[in-house]
């Protein structure tokens, strides 16, 4: 049998406790390179807590998180983007007074190395990095179909467009893994369909592995290669969308014990 490829992301026995409250309880799963993986569960299941552990906003009480075999928990928070992990958030946070182009360019910060002095003095190294950042931002603006608003201040844009700007900014850091935190929140049916296509293109064209937390079940089930379900902080199911959809534990978690 062919040997399975090494996981890009490995979550190993992760638990999080806030005082006496157990937010995550011994959660374990892998995400393989090139996968689109969905993380689902009822409200309060622990999904966002897990995302905050992956991006180092929280430190687990126990367990380990490995990214390409490197401990995420041993990596300083400010180096997570450089490690290759990008993220969007439930609440879109753009620089409203900056243009779309400038917002996307900000995403390149983790890939630049010029010092403050070199940038202030406009030395050749800083100038080259600025040109590279702008070129990459322009590519992503076209990729996300934002050319018509490229010079608009982000603060005046409609919410769905702001979400696309945030996604372009996250891609500007050239992540290997992109964490999408409820990307369909606030979108209508047609916008969710467009989002599904965008997520597939992020994987297929940009070559980025995706892990998304989402309440929009039809989106998760249609776009994901695998789905992990957690409830009350525990993993209760993992498998293909079809397998998870018919899992008795998942049915109970969403519909109640009487539905089993």
In words, what does this structure look like?
The chain has a domain of 80 residues. Helices cover 36% and strands 23% of the residues. It is built from ten helices and ten strands. The chain has a six-stranded mixed sheet, with helices on both faces. α3 packs parallel to α6. The two termini are 37 Å apart. About 2% of the residues have low confidence.
State the helix count.
10
Amount of beta strand: 15-25%
Shape: globular
In quaternary terms, these chains amount to single chain
Structure at a glance:
The chain has about 260 residues and is of the alpha/beta class. The protein has a domain at about 90-170.
Task: Sum up the structure in keywords.
260 residues, alpha/beta, six-stranded mixed β-sheet, four-stranded antiparallel β-sheet, 10 strands, 36% helix
Helix/strand layout:
Elements: E1 9-18, E2 21-31, E3 36-40, H1 47-54, E4 62-67, E5 70-71, H2 80-83, E6 85-87, H3 100-106, H4 116-120, H5 124-143, H6 159-172, E7 177-181, H7 189-204, E8 209-213, H8 217-223, E9 226-231, E10 234-239, H9 241-245, H10 248-255
Parallel strand pairs: 3-8, 3-9, 6-7, 7-8
Antiparallel strand pairs: 1-2, 1-4, 4-5, 9-10
């Amino acid at each position: 049998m062919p040997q399975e490829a090494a996981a890009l992301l490995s979550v190993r026995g992760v638990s999080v406790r806030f005082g006496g409250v157990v937010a995550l309880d011994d959660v374990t799963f892998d995400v393989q390179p090139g996968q689109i993986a969905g993380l689902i569960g009822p409200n309060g299941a622990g999904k966002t807590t897990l995302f905050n552990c992956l991006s180092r906003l929280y430190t687990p009480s126990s367990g380990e998180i490995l990214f390409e075999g490197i401990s995420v928990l041993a990596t300083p928070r400010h180096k997570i983007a450089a490690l290759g992990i990008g993220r969007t958030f439930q609440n879109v946070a753009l620089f409203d007074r900056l243009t779309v182009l400038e917002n996307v360019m900000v995403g390149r910060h983790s890939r630049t190395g010029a010092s403050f002095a070199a940038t202030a003095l406009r030395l050749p190294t800083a100038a080259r990095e600025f040109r590279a950042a702008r070129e990459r931002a322009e590519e992503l603006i076209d990729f996300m179909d934002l050319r018509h608003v490229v010079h608009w201040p982000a603060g005046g844009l409609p919410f769905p467009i702001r979400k696309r700007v945030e996604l372009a900014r996250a891609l500007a850091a050239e992540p290997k893994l992109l964490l999408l935190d409820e990307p369909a929140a606030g979108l209508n049916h047609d916008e969710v369909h467009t989002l599904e296509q965008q997520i597939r293109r992020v994987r297929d064209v940009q070559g980025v592995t995706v892990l998304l937390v989402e309440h929009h079940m039809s989106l998760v089930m249609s776009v994901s290669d695998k789905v992990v379900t957690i409830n009350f902080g525990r993993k209760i199911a993992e498998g293909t969308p079809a397998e998870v959809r018919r899992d008795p534990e998942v049915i109970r978690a969403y519909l109640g014990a009487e539905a089993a």
